[in-house]
Amino acid sequence: VSGLDIGIFNIAHGDQKGLQFGFFNSSFKSTGLQIGLVNKTEYLNGLQIGILNFHGEGNFRFLPVVNFSF
Length: 70
Description:
This protein has 70 residues and is mainly beta. Helix content is 0%, strand content 80%. It is built from no helices and five strands. A five-stranded mixed beta sheet has the order 1-2-3-4-5, with no helix packed on it. Strand 4 and strand 5 (62-69) form a beta hairpin. The radius of gyration is 10 Å and the shape is globular. The relative contact order is 0.19. The mean pLDDT is 94.
């Protein structure tokens, strides 16, 4: 997915580049911004803003409110 992804449940089975905005956002690799209640990605190159933020790499794999990796 490239660009803007808006919905209640946004699931990108591959790479996501740009913005995901919804209650639940999920992708394999996220480059850009995820804004939602729950954000999940395996590889993060960007910013997550939400109540629960998960990413599979780095020192902080789970952070509430804001999570980032560049």
